[in-house]
Amino acid sequence: MPVDFAALKALHAAAGDRHILDLFSRDPDRATEFSARADGLLFDYSKTNIDAQSREALLGLLDTAGVAEKREAMFSGEKINDTEGRAVLHTALRNLDGGPVTVGGKDVMPGVRDTLARMEAFADRLRRGEATGVSGAPFEDVVNIGIGGSDLGPVMAYEALKPYVDGPRCHFVSNVDGAHVHDVLAGLDPRTTLVIVASKTFTTIETMTNAKTARAWLVETLGEAGVARHFAALSTAGDKTAEFGIAPDLVFGFEDWVGGRYSVWGPIGLSLMLAIGPRTFTDFLRGGQAMDRHFRTAPWAENLPALLALVGIWHNQICGHATRAVLPYEQRLLRLPAYLQQLEMESNGKRVAMDGTDLPFDSGPVVWGEPGTNGQHAFYQLIHQGTRVVPCEFMVGKYGHEPDLAHQHELLVANCLAQSEALMRGRSLVEATEIMETKGFSGAELERQARHRVFPGNRPSTVLAYEKLTPFVLGQIVALYEHRVFVEGVILGINSYDQWGVELGKELALALHPVLAGTADGAGKDGSTLQLVDYLKT
Ligand SMILES: O=P(O)(O)OC[C@H]1O[C@H](O)[C@H](O)[C@@H](O)[C@@H]1O
């Protein structure tokens, strides 16, 4: 049944400009009552304007939208991506000791386990120095060439898990801008470099172009014979990887039921596995699996993915806040905001419902962010005093990985909690006036100066706290956000698993390329495009 936000909007309107602090005064247990835990994670959403009544109504959306049935449909391999006729089974990639999962009557788990075992065997051999390049020298560097989901997952996780890296160094090339591949290859020795071409379709123009450039770079030193030993491929398109010259034993395949932005758990995670080793990679999978279990079994009121989704719906569709900031107080999560941009915006940035009718409300929000504390010295000004409200999602760990620098970690945590507190508390005109009086201001100038120093406060934020950013915890966090996207998508009644919105630009770029190269004319193009072609063609 389609959801109706009218009741929630009425509750929001009735709350008026009620202050979040008043909710705490009224309910001394608010912090615990508006928090939930899962396998060591703590999600605190008490510093939002959601009260018991609005939470009840939000939870009601899950039943109206049939989230529980759709959740089981996803986990059991039904083709819920119905504009592409595909199942959505990234969860099978981390179903390490679970039961069979069938698609079209066939259990996919033997294939998943087989590919994982091949990846592990290769990773072990490479890390022991047994799988070598043509010169016999061990691989020291790995270059993952991919874009979108074939880049963001591995690069995000590699950066996040740097303390666990004890294998080859990984480098990531994604942009079709030749500067990217040039700069990465410039520092590398082809004799000790493994190039991984990561592309689900093996047709993505950026990836195939960069792969050809890397191939030419390698062949220049090692000859054609080097390709079979120095290139691996991660793809669903086995025929195309063979055409490229990649040896079949270095092709790690997967099925179309793994969406690009959900693919880090399988072969697309090979670079990560090479860097941290198969055992540690398994910990990452186990974290994802733990979150799957939590998502499937925890009651909705304690279910982290559901709660994150409902908080998201409340802020975006009900309160009308069009963006949300993801602010990890964890330097190594520096690529997480970019990863979540693809995960959330490519999944839930849709304008029609499943049945093709116009969506009667806004779809997913604009997601953006940076690690704290850097963001504090950049854009937090707008978050605190701008005219628009930006719901903030903070993340922070109890421990860092640098015991010698524990004092810095304390400062980091203090900053995170202080920002969340400051957003809620604000600073009133009275308080600001008092401060400016002590600085010697008076009269009209006192008021003018004080007004610049007012923080409206009452701005919502959530905190996701964890013990330490281990591979397991990273797995939990990534799966948490995946399932949050799923729940929001189901409530909105959209297909979170296609991405038709990326197609038009790709088609037009292909058509413009020959115009820029001077081998086709620009007939039918608009004046602006023609003017820019004229300026930019070489
Ligand atoms: O892995 P590939 O097939 O090369 O696709 C790479 C990326 O490009 C596409 O345009 C999609 O927008 C992404 O969802 C995908 O992750």
UniProtKB/TrEMBL annotation:
Its EC number is 5.3.1.9. It catalyses: alpha-D-glucose 6-phosphate = beta-D-fructose 6-phosphate. Gene3D superfamilies: 1.10.1390.10, Glucose-6-phosphate isomerase like protein, domain 1. It is an enzyme of class 5 (isomerase). One of its GO terms (molecular function) is glucose-6-phosphate isomerase activity. Pathway: Carbohydrate degradation; glycolysis; D-glyceraldehyde 3-phosphate and glycerone phosphate from D-glucose: step 2/4; Carbohydrate biosynthesis; gluconeogenesis. Keywords: Cytoplasm, Gluconeogenesis, Glycolysis, Isomerase. It comes from the Bacteria. It is found in: Cytoplasm. PROSITE patterns: P_GLUCOSE_ISOMERASE_1 (PS00765), P_GLUCOSE_ISOMERASE_2 (PS00174), P_GLUCOSE_ISOMERASE_3 (PS51463). Pfam families: PGI (PF00342). InterPro entries: G6P_Isomerase, G6P_Isomerase_C, Phosphoglucose_isomerase_CS, SIS_dom_sf, SIS_PGI_1, SIS_PGI_2. The keyword Isomerase applies. Its main location: cytoplasm. One of its GO terms (cellular component) is cytosol. The active site is at E346, H377, K506. One of its GO terms (biological process) is glucose 6-phosphate metabolic process. Belongs to the GPI family. Catalyzes the reversible isomerization of glucose-6-phosphate to fructose-6-phosphate. NCBIfam families: PRK00179.1. This is Glucose-6-phosphate isomerase. It comes from Celeribacter indicus.
